[in-house]
Specification:
This protein is of the alpha/beta class and about 525 residues long. It contains 17 helices and 14 strands. A hairpin with a 5-residue loop joins strand 4 and strand 5.
Length: about 525
């Protein structure tokens, strides 16, 4: 396996990794939260030996000094010293004594949940060691001088635990454990999750991969409103007939290893794709146990394939047209009690041969190969078999058994159609109503007759729609022009009103001025009369 394969496994099993990591993180966090903090008090004592030599040089016995340091280190852990210390401390903390390398110092570390107790114990232990040293040389000149070089202080910060470090390690352990579980589940799970796995197992070409989209609700099982699915079936259509060895193939059996692989949906949409290229297609529902084709095309199932095989009806009587002119359907008819006997009869081979003469492509829908033997008895009578495999659904054992059954009857396996894949379902194509173009040439179809008439009708409908659209645009332009003219007329009327208002205002001013002149004249007249 390559690195890319492992990354695909982790991406597919990502929730196992995430949940494992989160669970581990929660457990570690709760453990850290419930663990009480511990404080470490440290004291250092110096063990100094006597010097030898003369005035010219001084000599220290280094090996003797080291032995003394180791001796006092072991004495700090001895039962006598601990017993003496227990007289002063009711609950003994964790004690550790060690020699500081390259020095004459002994470091005593005391760890306890109570910082004051840790400090008291460290200082008391150093004092007990000094007292023990003095008792050994009482009355004599001591060759050893031991004293406290650095007393212990009350610690203010806990020495353990370290939450960030522990949580970080917990996260790493959770991720590693999650990755391990993901690989374990992958090894135990035999479902096929990638096109590469399916291709490697079948040793057949993958002719197409049909994307899965839960947001789509196909009409009658046909993805006519999804550009993504239309392109996928067009690509499938092209791949089937593009190979030189497939030039003479007309009749195809579509089957799958297990149920719910979506083969009937593939049959209906493949027929629709082929029909869009002006090629006549007939869909035969050879599933005489659980038929579904009639519901996809909204047809009656009173008479069908079973009636023809039992010679209760003629072939022409059971062929039903659909609302798609190039697609005809033969439904299953009434379900017989002996479907295998009918499907492997000579009448079935004759029926397929007759349909190949009347239509460009014959598509036969059948039950799942692992469920019943129906596909195995039909396969020798068709030109090729298309195997539909649903991704992340079919297990390796089921697909291997299906291949074995079909190879036993020497079926011509044309290729594999991988259904409900995750290819392009995000936003590669917009979902809009569209029609298929660029038809693929199918051997045995000359594209004349009824196909050309249908093409002419489509062109006529398009031209008619364009004419209607042109008329609507002309009406819209006329409406806009008339509205513009009306607006201009209203503007002119407003301008006239403004002019009239100005004239009235000027007249009003003139009238006011005349009234003023009259008042002055009257005043002058009154003055003259008074005189």
């Amino acid at each position: 396996m390559e690195l890319r394969d492992y990354l695909e496994i982790l991406a597919r099993r990502r929730w196992i990794v995430i949940i494992t990591a989160i669970f581990t993180l929660i457990v570690v966090t709760l453990g850290v939260g419930q663990t009480p903090p511990k404080y470490t008090a440290t004291t250092k004592i110096r063990v100094l030996t006597t010097r030898t030599g003369g005035a010219d040089y001084i000599d220290y016995d280094v090996s003797y000094a080291e032995r003394l340091q180791n001796t006092f280190t072991e004495m700090a852990k001895s039962s006598n010293v601990i017993e003496e210390l227990s007289k002063y401390v009711d609950k003994l903390p964790k004690i550790n004594a060690k020699v500081v390398s390259g020095t004459e110092l002994i470091q005593i570390d005391v760890e306890d949940e109570d910082p004051a107790r840790a400090q008291f114990t460290a200082n008391k232990l150093s004092q007990i060691l000094i007292d023990q040293s003095r008792k050994l040389y009482s009355g004599d000149v001591s060759p050893v001088n031991i004293y406290v070089a650095e007393p212990a202080d009350i610690p203010t910060q806990p020495s353990s635990p370290h939450p960030l470090v522990i949580i970080g390690l917990g996260l790493v352990v959770g991720l590693v454990g999650g990755i391990g579980l993901a690989l374990l589940f992958e090894s135990l799970d035999t479902r096929l999750y990638s096109t590469k796995q399916i291709e490697n197992l079948t040793q057949l070409p993958v002719l197409g991969d049909i994307p899965n989209d839960h947001d789509l609700h196909p009409e009658d099982g046909l993805f006519k409103d999804s550009r993504l699915h239309i392109e996928a079936f067009r690509r499938l259509h092209t791949n089937i007939f593009s190979h030189a060895e497939n030039e003479t193939l007309q009749a195809f059996l579509i089957t799958s290893p297990v149920t719910k692989d979506g083969k009937s949906t593939v049959v209906a949409n493949l027929a629709f794709s082929i029909a869009q290229g002006n090629h006549s297609v007939i869909v035969v529902d050879a599933n005489l146990r659980w038929p579904t084709i009639q519901s996809m095309f909204n047809l009656s199932n009173e008479r069908g394939l079973s009636d023809v095989l039992q010679q209760k009806a003629k072939l022409a009587d059971v062929i039903q047209p659909t609302k798609y002119p190039e697609i005809h359907v033969i439904t299953s008819g009434k379900l017989p009690v002996n479907p295998v006997e009918l499907l492997q009869s000579d009448q079935m081979a004759i029926l397929i041969a007759q349909l190949k003469q009347q239509y460009d492509v014959v598509l036969l829908d059948s039950p799942a190969s692992l469920t019943v033997t129906d596909p195995a008895v039909i396969a020798p009578n068709v030109d090729g078999v298309l195997l539909v495999v649903r991704q992340a659904w079919v297990r390796r054992e089921a697909l291997q058994a299906t291949l074995k059954h079909l190879n036993t009857v020497k079926a011509n396996l044309v290729g594999v159609i991988v259904n409900r894949t995750g290819l392009g379902t995000s936003s590669r194509f917009s979902k809009k109503r569209t029609l298929l173009t660029s038809p693929v040439s199918i051997p045995g179809s000359d594209g004349t007759g009824k196909g050309k008439e249908m093409e002419k009708e489509r062109v006529a409908r398009v031209e008619n729609q364009l004419d209607i659209l042109g008329q609507k645009l002309d009406k819209l332009v006329d409406t806009l022009v008339s509205q513009q003219q009306e607006s201009q007329t209203k503007v002119e009327q407003i301008k006239k009103l403004d002019t009239q208002v100005e004239d009235l205002s000027q007249r009003q001013k003139q009238s006011n001025q005349n009234e003023g002149d009259l008042d002055k004249r009257l005043d002058n007249l009154l003055d003259s009369l008074r005189k």
